[in-house]
Amino acid sequence: DSGVTQTPKHLITATGQRVTLRCSPRSGDLSVYWYQQSLDQGLQFLIQYYNGEERAKGNILERFSAQQFPDLHSELNLSSLELGDSALYFCASSVVGSLNSPLHFGNGTRLTVT
Amino acid sequence: AQSVTQLDSHVSVSEGTPVLLRCNYSSSYSPSLFWYVQHPNKGLQLLLKYTSAATLVKGINGFEAEFKKSETSFHLTKPSAHMSDAAEYFCVVSEAAGTGKLIFGQGTTLQVKP
User: Of B2, B3, B72, B107, which shows the fewest CB atoms inside 10 Å?
Assistant: First the structure.
């Protein structure tokens, strides 16, 4: 058990809808990362937050947004969903936001857009 | 730009025989390199990391990897495979210093036959 909690585990929704994925980092971790895993793109970094502030941005679509709250949990919002957004979305956390601090991954949220 | 290439998408070994998962990287600076493992329906777990200390890195579950700068390689090995090692393995390079942004390889599926 990594200590990173993601909810929900599964999400099925229709095209055009909006969903929110939630992540609670490990106790003491200040940095949260979101990754998308799909069959064709593999694992892609979306965005990183550190102590409430955006730290780095990757291949995140404009339809997607994220935030980290004062209690350090994070939410990833996906809107105007398309079939291609179907993927496994991982949250990871680390103590600090540097590369020497290993990432601990949650079990992911599997999003299916129909 | 940093990148990582996993040379085999699928590796099959017999239980008790050695494991070799190959990874080449490209980086414009001295990189940090990682191997992560993903078991079915689970999140990613850190196996080991290289951060410019010893070139031979020992990880969990008997895995180790050797950083070879001249060959730009970071191959993962294990002397004797167990059935429980069957999983997807990802070679990962850090995107840049100062952030935890990681670039994942496409993954290698390890099959262990009895």
Answer: B3
DSSP string, chain B: --EEEES-SEEEEETTS-EEE-EEEE-SS---EEEEEE-TTS-EEEEEEE-SS-SEEE-GGG-EEEEETTTTEEEEEESS--GGG-EEEEEEEESSTTS--EEE---EEEEEE-
**Among A2, A8, A36, CA closest to A23:** A8
Residues in chain A: 114
Local structure of residue A101 (DSSP, 8 states): S
Distance of alpha carbon A96 from alpha carbon A92, whole angstroms: 12
pLDDT tens digits along A98-109: 656 778 899 999
Q: Tokens 């050797």 correspond to what residue?
A: B66
Is the Cβ pair B99, A106 closer than 8 Å?
Answer: no
Q: Look at B104 and A106 and tell me if their CB atoms are within 8 Å.
A: no
What is residue B5's predicted lDDT score, i.e. its pLDDT? 95
Mean residue pLDDT of chain A comes to 92
Nearest chain B residue to A58 by CA distance is B101
Residues B77, B63: contact at Cβ < 8 Å? Answer: yes
With CA atoms as reference, the chain A residue closest to B40 would be A107
- Residue A108 near residue A22, CB atoms below 8 Å: no
* Residue pLDDT tens, chain B, 114 long: 788 999 999 999 999 999 999 999 988 777 889 999 999 878 899 999 887 778 899 999 999 999 998 999 999 999 999 999 999 999 998 866 555 678 899 999 999 999
